[in-house]
Amino acid sequence: MAKDPLAEAGLHFDELNKLRVLEPEVGQKTTELKEECKDFVDKIGQFQKIVGGLIELVDELANAAETEKMKAIGARNLLKSVAKQREAQQQQLHALIAEKTMQLERYRIEYEALSKVEAEQNEFIDQFILQK
Fold first, then answer.
1. Which GO terms fall under biological process for this protein (predicted)?
2. 25-50: pLDDT as tens digits
3. Phi, psi (5° rounding) for residue 58?
4. Closest CA relative to residue 21, chosen from 9, 31, 29
């Protein structure tokens, strides 16, 4: 009977016979909820660590991909410049060949002219020797 007036006043005794304001069931559920909340907070912390690691890994992979992309762009530009250099060198060599061909033709014409002059001079010398 002593419990009824205390219970009506909202006071209860727990298993250690301590006076409590909450009912034992409510206190137990509160404790269970507190433990579940702690577990939930711990799991959220673990989840944040995992997600943080994943984000770091993705950032590293993105940086590595960007680096490789830049290397590929550099290599492509280098190949383009090498191709342009080869084309320019080829044009220079064609121009040099044309120049040397023209020079060869001039030398051939000059040789023919000198050979003609030599033949004329030899003929003149032969005629001069025969006249004496």
1. cilium assembly; protein localization to cilium
2. 777 888 899 999 999 999 999 999 99
3. -65, -40
4. 9
